[in-house]
């Protein structure tokens, strides 16, 4: 049997006897490919959306560390320069 997912909410419609999505109520016709989707929820996009905040936090921390390192280096150079 072909893979069938709701056009509206990507609910897995496979094996349902009623031709109505139990999740969102959208009707579908197993004989008409226009009324359902062959592709389920995009796992890559979902994973990306879950991972993204953590990456943003890591990027912020990395940026903050680099910025403070840069600031310390500049201050140290200025101090050394003023002594010479
Ligand atoms: Zn649905």
Describe this structure in words.
The chain has one helix and two strands; from the N terminus they run E-E-H. With 84 residues, the protein is mainly alpha-helical. It has two domains: 41 residues, no CATH class; 43 residues. The mean pLDDT is 89. Bound molecules: zinc ion (ZN). The site of zinc ion has 8 residues, from loops.
Sequence-ordered SSE layout with sheet pairings:
Elements: E1 5-6, E2 36-37, H1 43-83
Antiparallel strand pairs: 1-2
Bound molecules: zinc ion (ZN).
Descriptive labels:
84 residues; mainly alpha; 2 domains; two-stranded antiparallel ribbon; binds zinc ion
Short description:
The chain folds into two domains: 1-41, no CATH class; 42-84.
Average residue pLDDT: 89
Number of strands: 2
By oligomeric state, this entry counts as single chain
Estimated radius of gyration = 27 Å
- Give the % helix: 40-55%
| Residue fraction in strands | under 5%
- The coarse silhouette is rod-shaped
């Amino acid at each position: 049997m072909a893979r069938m997912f709701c056009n509206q909410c990507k609910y897995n419609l496979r094996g349902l006897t009623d031709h109505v999505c139990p999740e969102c109520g959208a009707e579908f016709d197993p004989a008409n490919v226009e009324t359902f989707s062959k592709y389920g929820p995009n796992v890559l996009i979902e994973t990306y959306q879950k991972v993204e905040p953590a990456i943003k936090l890591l990027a912020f921390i990395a940026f903050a560390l680099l910025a403070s390192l840069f600031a310390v280096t500049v201050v140290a150079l200025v101090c050394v320069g003023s002594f010479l």
